[in-house]
Amino acid sequence: MSSRHADTAPDAVREVVVVQRPPSWRGTPFSLSYVHLDREVSGAELLGIYRWATGQQLENPRVISPFTMEWSSVFHPRFYRAAAGTGATTVRSLEPVEANGTDSALQRLWFESVVFLASVTLSAAIVQSRFSSGTLASKYDRLWQAGKFASTGLVPGLQGQALMDDVSSMASDSGVSDLERLLAIRRRFEEVIACLRGPESVTEVSLVRREIPAELGPRFGFLEELRHRLGARLECVIVYGSSVNSEHFADYDLVLVAKDPEAVLRKLYATSPRFSGKELNVGVYSSDELWRMQCLSGDNLADYGLCIYGETRVPAKSATDLLMRNLSFGIVRQRQQLGMVGAALADHPLPGDDRRNLYGYFTKIPANIAKGTFGAMNQRLTKEEVHDWIESICGFRTTHMQQLASDGDPGRALAESAVATGAVLRALNERFTVVRPHGATEQGVQPGGST
Q1: What would the pLDDT profile of 385-398 be if each residue is shown by its tens digit?
Q2: For residue range 306-323, what is the model confidence (pLDDT) as tens digits?
Q3: What is the fold, at CATH topology level, of the domain defined by 203-317?
């Protein structure tokens, strides 16, 4: 590790800390350059700092603002402690207002968030072919990270070295088909998730088929085709999102519960199913897999999902747990956004390139966080309401920036979105009081302030 003050840097830059990381499954060591700021910056300033970092030939730059550092004390405590050990942070630490704030509990929350967000997209990678070499590499990274984390003893039953050996073997085997590689990655994630503790307590809820309102009946006409295609393997179909609660919607979001999820995924591989011109975005799980994934999610599926076939059981989590998980997802995603800005500056994806979709997805992270957090408090906002709320608090126009990310200037869109993510998290905390300065009381320092 090396540290130096950046004399030629933009005025917001306080220090650059270069950290050398040991080889992972990639086989070679690599460096991360943490660019620490002394204040919050605008999206334009953030983009300028990344351009400066590129000109300085800093390897893998990550810009860290006081907000990102402060919130890491709760949502990524190992990183916060490591930065404090280098002298790279002087910001205060935070604590949860209600949830378990022990160090081990917060480390597990971070780890569960990382694993959930990496694994929840695997069905789409298989069914819609939404993956690239970069996607696969990021999954290997998260699995390798899981192996390293298991060595801390905080994930009983997970054999870290064996997992890392598996990742190295998968990554080096060039003779495996895309489908088999994706299924193997999925198996490893399910093995990791099976070892996770999840919430301290949950309530079991049964999701059973409900009578579909007459006006919505034709909307879900894809059900018969699914039943015909998947046969007896299909146990339950749950629809959620805008196709359930909005008159106008772009696609369908649904969960399929299956007796043999791998067989179903093989059947649906690369089919990109559609109905009435709209894509079916499916998540495929066994009943046990769905239970475990829902224990780690930031929502309660029974609160907003419509079961249109069969039945299954799902957990119901407390509002405190849901709020913590949604804000944790926000910090994980913001870190990912910050890691993508520099790469996007040098990237020129072609039409249809997976990275264009990836940039567009990460640009709408503020909206995803806001919708999930409001939903955790049973406030079901439409997409338009969420976009209007975000624009009102920080001027970020989600739809415009998504278009910019996909067609024009992904670096700018990601930089603006990363800043908006911080603004959204602060605003949500001010509204719902999830974390506060360490040692503060409800009568003392106002939670959610000062960042």
Answers
A1: 999 999 999 999 99
A2: 999 999 999 999 999 999
A3: Beta Polymerase; domain 2 (3.30.460)
